[in-house]
Design brief:
By secondary structure, this protein is mostly helical. Helices cover about 70% and strands about 0% of the residues. It is a multi-pass membrane protein.
């Protein structure tokens, strides 16, 4: 019994514990990041959020506020619903690419930041001391990276085409989850929590699959908006711009 307890203690306090885990959560808990990494991600996140606030105030009309609220409410509710992943785990929507496509990267960043703050404070989904890292990984990188990848693919295939939108949203949504998982792995490794190879194996193996769920959910949501109110897109199709005014952007 003593030997078993000793082995359990050693296992739980070493990187072997992580090697045997099915996956690591993308919402990093308290105590998993070193103080320098936590402070750095806090500084970067606060700085980018401050810039986003200025950009939204300067470039967006008041009509954007209700849309931001609706988008935040939808993403928050959607994140509460987990979809099963083979192997006994589950995933849920992050929503960065969705927010970016509908609101643009700056307003989308604000929406995602609010969502993750509420989750951490009210539902303990991710730690408070590492909230800067979670906002950076899933909110900032997910929104900016997802939006610009979606935009690049959409313009390459056809800016006003259904196929361009569909492929762009699907690829960008999947990539936003995978990239966020990779960045979180590097943060854990730099903090000395777990070796990089172990972190990447634990994070990437599952989030590559979770990203597929992210892509499917985002495609369904964006397809509905595209068919019903394409003018709500931050960068709507040209045919819509000719008949409907831009809902909130001045450029």
């Amino acid at each position: 019994m003593a030997t078993a307890n000793l082995f359990s203690q050693v296992l739980s306090s070493s990187w072997l514990h992580w090697a045997l885990q099915p996956h690591l959560a993308l919402h990093i808990p308290d105590g998993f990041l070193s103080l320098p990494i936590s402070l750095l991600t806090w500084i970067v996140s606060i700085g980018l959020i401050a810039i986003a606030l200025k950009q939204v105030q300067a470039d967006y009309q008041e009509r954007a506020v209700p849309l931001m609220g609706v988008c935040a409410a939808f993403i928050f509710a959607a994140q509460m619903i987990n979809f099963p992943i083979p192997g006994g785990t589950s995933g849920h929507l992050l929503g960065g690419t969705l927010a970016g496509a509908l609101l643009g990267p700056w307003a989308g960043t604000l929406v995602m930041s609010v969502v993750f703050i509420v989750q951490a404070v009210l539902f303990q989904d991710g730690g408070l001391t590492v909230l800067g890292a979670n906002i950076f990984n899933m909110g900032l990188v997910g929104t900016f990276g997802g939006y610009y990848l979606y935009k690049a693919i959409r313009f390459a295939i056809g800016r006003n085409s259904w196929r361009g939108m569909l492929v762009g949203i699907a690829v960008a949504s999947w990539a936003s989850v995978v990239v966020a998982a990779a960045i979180a792995s590097f943060q854990l490794a730099l903090s000395g929590t777990v070796p990089l190879a172990v972190a990447l194996a634990a994070m990437m193996s599952w989030h590559v699959v979770i990203g597929i769920g992210e892509a499917l959910i985002t495609v369904v949501a964006v397809s509905f908006v595209w068919r019903s109110r394409p003018d709500l897109f931050y960068d709507p199709p040209r045919r819509t711009q000719q008949s409907l005014s831009r809902p909130y952007s001045l450029h």
